[in-house]
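Closing statement on the oxa(dethia)-CoA sub-project.
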Amino acid sequence: MKIIGTGSAIPSKVVTNDMLSEFLDTSDEWIVPRTGIKSRHVISSEELEDLGIEACRKALDMSGLGPQDIDYFICSNVVNEYATPGLSCVIGAGLGLQCPCIDINCACPGFIYAMDIAEAQYRAGRVKNVLIVCCEEPTRMCDWTDRSTSVLFGDGAGAAVLTAGDNIKGISLHCEPAPDKIWQKRLMQPTPYITKEEHETPLQMKGREVFKFAVNASTRDVEALLKSVGMSKEDVSFYMVHQANARIIDAIKQYLEEPDGKFPSNIADHGNSSSASCPILLDECNRKGLFKKGDILVFSAFGAGLLSGAAIVEW
Ligand code: UT7
């Protein structure tokens, strides 16, 4: 397939590090050097599905396709208010889609997992045009009295339209199952028969272990994928790395021995927006005119699961 449209939508509320230090024992001096985050967009009055709809509309406008042209719609999301129907159906209704709508919960690498599904459907001859949206509100997963998690995240949606083409040069997906490294539990409705004890738990993360996993997984995925398609680092124009932490991106950069200029970043203004991070970055760079035809973009993302993935896309 090839990407023919991108879009993004972010909440209007901007929360700076100084605003967080008004109610948390934290500071700009701690957050910036450890994460690279200066501010983040946080959902206040918006509905998540409206951000998803806006991102999709922008991507569709750019692609020149309409909702009636879409054969398959994938929504990547970790948490939203609807247990059912899937967020893809809620957003699909807002867009007027009439195609199959599926949700995936693959955490931060969700955009890459969604591209893999799209490419597989296309290669099977089942679809021509696929719309992907990654729509996330991780700020609603955190305990906002916990400074170790709540300072890291931001909300938003990023979308892409894919159509027939030969521009996805390779995708690799990995899992090192470890559900105790990043997790959150919600309470379900009680029944008269439940005898076990159940608790609600806000987002928990073993930050240092996840940091190491992220750097190892990303460098391994990127090097192995490039090799498997017969490409080298010299062929890569840009690394579109999940915006979780500027130090993770720096470590990947150093390990790959690649220059700063190949790593576009927006973490300073967005924080970690889970699976929305890669497509928001893609849309911002695309609309700034950063990419030219033939450029090679290497996506790499990692997160809860622990899942990781990489993709090579020719622009
Ligand atoms: O998208 C999912 C992927 N997630 C990630 O990629 C996150 C990966 N992990 C990280 O980015 C880093 O581990 C963090 C940014 C989360 C934490 O940085 P760290 O350098 O690993 O710090 P730490 O957790 O080891 O904490 C060091 C100290 C602790 O204090 P003590 O115990 O040394 O007194 C923490 O309590 O920093 C303290 N601390 C804070 N202090 C001020 C933790 N969070 C904060 C904070 N403000 N926000």
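The pocket of oxa(dethia)-CoA is lined by residues 26, 30-31, 34-35, 108, 147-148, 151, 182, 207-208, 210-211, 214, 244-245, 248, 272, 303 (CB under 6 Å). With this model delivered, the sub-project is considered complete and its resources will be redirected to Aim 3.
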